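pasting for ref
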Amino acid sequence: MSLATKKDEENGLSTYYNNKTTVIQEARVFNDSPISPRKCRALLTRIVYLLYVGETFTTQEATTLFFGTTKLFQHKDSALRQMVYLAIKELATTAEDVIMVTSSIMKDMQPNSEGLPQEQPSMAQGVERFFKAAIVDKNSSISSAALVSAYHLFPSAKDVVKRWVNEAQEAVNSKSSSFFGGNTGGSSYLGWGGSSANTNSGYQAVPSTSYITQYHALGLLYLIRQQDRMAVTKMIQQLGGGKTGSGTVLKSPLALCMLIRYAAKVIEEDPNVQRQMLDLIEGWLRHKSDMVNLEAARAICEMRNVTAAQLSKPIAVLQLFLSSPKSSLRFAATRTLASLALTHPSSVATCNVDLENLISDSNRSVATYAITTLLKTGNEASVDRLMKQITGFMSEISDEFKVIIVDAIRSLCLKFPTKHASMLSFLSGVLRDEGGYDFKRAVVEAIFDMIKFIGECKEQALSHLCEFIEDCEFTKLSVRILHLLGVEGPKAPQPTKYIRYIYNRVVLENATVRAAAVASLAKFGLNSLDAKLSTSVRVLLNRCLDDVDDEVRDRAAMYLKVYDEPPLAIAYVREESIFSLSALEAKLVSYISDPEAAGKPFDVSSIPKISREQASKESARPSTLDTIGAPSTSRAAASPPPPSAAETQSAYAQQLSEVPEFASYGPVLNSSSKPAQLTESETEYQVSCVKHVFSEHIVFQQGTGPIYGEPEEEGYEDEYQLEDTELSAADYILPSYVTFTSEWDRMRGGINVTETFSLPAMESLKAACDSIIEILNMQPLGGSEDPQSTSVHTLQLSGLVGGGGGKVLVRSRMTYSKAQGVTLELAVRAEKQEAANLIVAAIV
């Protein structure tokens, strides 16, 4: 389908002129005698344009056009031949028998030809000598074309391209000023771009001052050597030019920026060379190119474990750019400082005076980053002044930058809780402004955090949210706010004032919001100690039984049933835990995939539970304190948050289900949460093992890989000493959340085992807690994993034993003294004796 718009047609690109049928009919100009280069170039341009805007050609049409251009290879007009190359490159994916053009291309790559080499993996070895010559050609356009083609050829012809490393090195080291379009005199390495060619084509020699060939050559060199860390380090040191950077042969700022990124990557992978690489990068801080200065400063600022002393030089460079007349430099500097302020606010604070001057910058993007940086580095006294300045230009910036501002204020609320009044006033104000979903969600989440962490503002914040849902156009936000009102509203001093806002949603909103409002209303009635309020809510729920939507009616009916049977409220309203969704999904997939399980009811007792707080953490975006206002970087994007234990289990279950040999083993009961390392950390290749426990089988999944880079295709045999793999209690237990006190009392009549242990090797209660949790792989409850006393502590744990072992709870009372270490009383309550024995045996 063509993507051409009405505007294109008005600009002269008419539908007729760029019609596929018209273009195919006009292809006869390729057969005219004599050939008109102008007409042919125009037609080829239209073909490429049609392909660009999404037009598709059938195989027959593409093949006809493809071979219609074959006569054009012999034409002397180099511009026409270059247009032919562009066209055949686009048509080659659809046309048939395209390999027939190979000989024509090779012929056009002979000396005294202006054609540029095009990559073709199947013919790479046959044209190797042409590529080698083109890479070192004096004409920079030819050299760059050859280098870029080699870069694209590398994945499919690695061995061939690796032999061109010397030519690529020569292109990097070339100091001569090259020319685009031809040389001023004489001929180049292959005779391309000579004076005769210039005469025929009418090209004028244009001097190149960008040294772009060095950039392309450096990229190819790194691609060839990227698996050899030592070779990459040596290349960086050779091209770096010493501590001052003045001795480098690289003249291209782009090449130097790329070299800085390679140096930063080496620092990240090998801390042993950090000092040498850091000296090189600091030398580039004094380069004459602003681009190189910024890249070097950014590389140092993004280093792991960077110290304040190491940051002084790059911050000084960025501070100079803050007063630059170029808005692009000011933007780059403030953006980098905004990111650095997350981890080193005191170091960035030296730039506060310059940043305050940028608040009124004409470029609002610069002003936004300046303010967010000041919010992170400023003190409590400057909050009110900054809030007034922010309010002034919120209406002048886009939603993207509004989100950055709101997120910075969200962080500031937690940093200076005494200033919550002014910040809540600001947030409630912008909540009433126009804006998209992402902006409104950021504001709502900021208010959610204030409700959670600043108790003094809870009631006022809930009132602002109630007013917002009266005119909220986003269903997701309305549902989230109604859920929060159901959780926090019944605890408020005057819960009745929220009922009107919630019931209005039942009357005025869509079905999704009405269902959420019903659930919120029910929590007010079932959690309230006020009998009058409970009765009023019941009346409102009865009215909801007449709703036109099934979900709304069903929820109302369920909660009315809970009214009639109060014990149900513990499970459906007041329960603090929920099923782990990842584990539930994996069990359901396994259940419906097993034909033998169809006749049995689905067993939910084997699914671990997590607290509602854990569930909200897993579903929420990253912490505000970690990411507020931080510009996204490629390095950050390449490191997504690690999967949760339940997600890991689900992924393993999916992998195992795809192996036919394991089909008869039944569902997997448990998999190791972390792979066990079977080799020393210093070995070049590391071997890890994951244990998968089935009801009657155990599968050991081993993985092997190099520490750095990717494994080579052609390797060699070697032997490694592997550690033994052991099975422990942790391989059979899944951590699961419960309300410990009530569940401990409920299991009083079940299996009870109590043992006393002496742990003299433990140096603290914290060490004992960590060791017990690791050995048993159980869920610590109530924050008991962090002892508050150094001498006495009680650790509470909960878990499920796979294979039908049922629920198991552990209460570990422990004392510590320097003379005896830790003394432990381990009490176990379980649904089955085998589960209790497993726990006790693990500690022994």
